[in-house]
Amino acid sequence: MKIVAVCGNGLGSSLMIEINIKKILREKNIKAEVTHIDLSNASTIKADIYIMGKDISKSCSLNNKIVLESLIDKTELENKLINKIQSMQNKDE
Amino acid sequence: MLNYISKDNIIINKSYISWQESINLVAEPLLKNQSINQTYVDAIFKSIDKLGFYIVISKDIALPHARPEDGVIKKGISILKSQYPINFADHQIYLVIMFAATDKESHMKMIEKLINVIGNQELLNKIIKSNDHNEILEIFTKGA
Questions:
Q1: pLDDT digits 0-9 by tens, B93-118
Q2: pTM of the prediction?
Q3: Which of B12, B44, B81, B137 yields a CA-CA distance of 20 to 30 A from B19?
Q4: Residue of A15, A39, A70 with shortest CB distance to B58
């Protein structure tokens, strides 16, 4: 599984999201490749899940998005990420 | 935040200001210590024009920044805490944090320390409530 955090410049909030994703995956013992990128290059990376804030998501037409209200709230991220991973696993079965 | 944050990089604002003024104010310490050129600040305004208020990262916090090639001289961070809310469109912001990165990765530690503080609701509440320079400096330096 590959997860990409996306933000405007690929330097600030996407890095914060990436740090929190890695923390959550470690805690939940889930293995995945995680990286971050700026919006204009996001479509060049093939990923299973793209995570971004709601301001950015308006200009992003990728599928499999998770849209966050707060980019630093680990609880919101954890709930949405775990739900998404579970629904993807259910689809596979 | 350790060595990245000092008293000179924290601004306590006690008046009503616009979001534009807040960005110009928070840029001052970074311009003064020659972390960035004025072109960096111009690039921030341009990217907000283009992408909207994507720099608002949570209900209280804005993180204005541009790219290394927009005028970064060295890595840096500065913080503006406002006593009154600053309107970024429909967001009411109390904390404006500007950072300058020299490349895609080398500021990772700085961002990680920052999120240890502002991602902690208890520490964030303390910062939002405080308008005391030393107290806010202490939370940022010791909280991480």
A1: 999 999 999 988 888 888 999 999 99
A2: 0.92
A3: B137
A4: A70
Q: Look at residues B88, B96, B115, B84 and name the one whose alpha carbon lies nearest to residue B29.
A: B96
Instruction: Count CB-CB contacts under 10 A for residue A65.
Output: 17
How would you classify residue A60: left for phi > 0, otherwise alpha for psi between -120 and 50, otherwise beta? beta
Residue (of B80, B85, B108, B107) closest to B22 by Cα position:
B80
Q: Which pLDDT tens digit goes with each residue over B14-56?
A: 999 999 999 999 999 999 999 999 999 999 999 999 888 889 9
Q: How many alpha carbons lie under 13 Å from residue B33 in its C-beta half-sphere?
A: 19
Rounded Cα gap, residues B42 and A31, in angstroms: 41
Identity (one letter) of the amino acid at B27? Answer: A
Instruction: With beta carbons under 8 A apart, name residues in chain A contacting B112.
Output: 19
